[in-house]
User: Which sequence fits this backbone?
């Protein structure tokens, strides 16, 4: 898959103060290999590959006080227009649109509840080249204490329409764009997530075995935030890497 339609999550990358550690941890966990950008200005930005195809990236934090975080990038054909929409809808522009060499144009925003997300206007780099198979991005999910506000905001910014997707006792919402559900949204689960976590986007990576991946993450110095459990779509776990970056894994039914 060389590109995704505008309005669809297309890439994810990690901002971390320990880039060398990330280059060790994630290849051990997911079977990735790393390709370091040759430009000195890229500060060691690494593209992770699965079977030779780009699946994710990692680089240093943009500011010294930035917490380690996996970012969701939504594809767009006009990053500057999205910036206008974000401002009009009550969001914040954290990083104004800029060109990343010849690779693409990006910007970073926060929705009104504080959840950060990015957009990617592709040039030479289309985004991820592999989805929904073990070792690649499979889902992106907003966890927010203000679902109603998010419904208004993301419809104005991306044209997403909320659609209820029953998931047991959880009030789960799927974001519909045309004929596809492109992402999800849920409220914080008090039993599973720290109460002081702000609204955030989380990235799910597909794995063959959620239990084995969670155990391996712990062996490698990470931690298990939500132990493996079954949901209607498969078996998932929420993890943290050794620097504290949150990510999730999901094993789909055979």
Assistant:
């Amino acid at each position: 898959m060389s590109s995704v339609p505008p309005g669809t999550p297309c890439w994810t990358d990690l901002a971390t103060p320990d880039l060398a550690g990330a280059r060790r941890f994630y290849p051990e966990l997911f079977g990735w290999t790393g390709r370091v950008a040759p430009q000195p200005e890229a500060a060691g930005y690494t593209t992770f590959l699965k079977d030779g195809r780009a699946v994710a990236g990692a680089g240093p934090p943009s500011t010294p006080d930035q917490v380690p975080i996996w970012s969701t990038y939504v594809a767009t054909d006009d990053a500057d227009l999205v910036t206008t929409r974000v401002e009009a809808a009550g969001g914040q522009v954290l990083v104004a649109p800029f060109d990343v060499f010849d690779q693409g144009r990006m910007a970073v925003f926060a929705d009104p509840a504080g959840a950060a997300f990015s957009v990617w206007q592709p040039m030479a780099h289309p985004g991820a080249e592999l989805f929904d198979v073990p070792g690649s991005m499979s889902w992106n999910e907003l966890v927010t204490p203000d679902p109603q506000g998010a419904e208004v905001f993301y419809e104005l910014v991306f044209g997403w329409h909320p659609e209820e997707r029953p998931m047991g006792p959880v009030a789960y919402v799927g974001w519909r764009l045309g004929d596809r559900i492109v992402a999800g949204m849920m409220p914080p689960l008090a039993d599973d997530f720290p109460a002081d976590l702000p609204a955030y986007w989380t990235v799910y990576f597909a794995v063959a075995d959620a239990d084995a991946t969670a155990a391996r993450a712990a062996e490698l110095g990470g931690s298990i935030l939500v132990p493996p459990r079954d949901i209607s779509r498969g078996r998932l776990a929420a993890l943290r890497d050794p620097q504290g970056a949150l990510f999730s894994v999901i094993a789909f039914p055979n």
